[in-house]
Amino acid sequence: MLKLHGVALSNYYNIVKQAMLEKGIAFEEITAPPSQDASFLTKSPMGKIPCLETPEGFLSESLAIIEYLEETHPTPSLLPGDAYQRAKTREIIKYAELYLDGPARRLLGHVIFGAPLPQQAFDEVRPALEKNLTALKRIARFEPWVAGTEFSLADIALLHIMGLVLAIIKPVYDWDILAQEPELANWMQRAAAREHSLTVLAAQKKVREAMMAKQA
Ligand SMILES: N[C@@H](CCC(=O)N[C@@H](CS)C(=O)NCC(=O)O)C(=O)O
Fold it and tell me: Ligand 1 pocket by C-beta < 6 Å: which residues?
């Protein structure tokens, strides 16, 4: 059976987990935080989570993993049938990863682990996110799903990446993107209401609350 290594707090872990649930793939969850330990680096060479244990070996990088799952378990499909639309779907995923998660993550240590607020990141992240969200809106379709009429990997990726972005920018900037972006807000509500989104987000909330209780 496939084994998904990581922790439910991680948005990237949750992207892969939801893709597996949506596809009805049987898998086991192995709790493993990110680590630079030699033994973990043999599984995930950057020490990041998630990684997937397959019968042929380990795979890291969530996009590579979900593409593998799409090829090995083609139904139900989470990518459009048309090559151009498939590429547009991957384009949204890359935008979310590189241009939303990337900048927001610079403030993660402060928000999640109570590290000092890095001033340079504080000054740079909000303008970067404003620019990058404008770019994302140019390719997002919300018809009703982000890449078009079908629910896809782009919805899963954007849902969990936006979850991280919102959890960071609210406390740091008191910035409520969803109040400013009704289309994005409506889409997010729709995406978060799906059965498997609810399962994955509930598991994340449980871990987050346990962590906060420990820190208090
Ligand atoms: N590009 C990677 C990003 C994964 C990632 O950044 N995971 C975080 C947890 S959400 C992590 O492992 N961070 C620890 C680190 O960067 O060393 C992917 O798509 O899987």
Answer: 10-12, 34, 47-49, 61-63
- Take residue 135 and report the two structure tokens written for it: 């770019």
Global model pTM greater than 0.90? yes
- Domains by residue range for the chain, with CATH: 2-72 (3.40.30.10), 83-215 (1.20.1050.10)
What distance in angstroms lies between residue 146's CA and the mean position of ligand 1's atoms? 23
Name the residue at shortest CA distance from atom 12 of ligand 1: 48
pLDDT digits over 1-28, tens only? 999 999 999 999 999 999 999 999 999 9
Q: How confident is the model at residue 216 (pLDDT cuts 50, 70, 90)?
A: confident
**Which of 12, 112, 207 has most ligand 1 atoms within 8 Å of its beta carbon, as the pocket-test mutant?**
12
Place of tokens 């610079």: 106
Query: CA-CA distance, 197 to 190, in Å (whole number)?
Result: 10
Pick the closest to residue 107 from 122, 97, 127, 88 (CA basis): 122
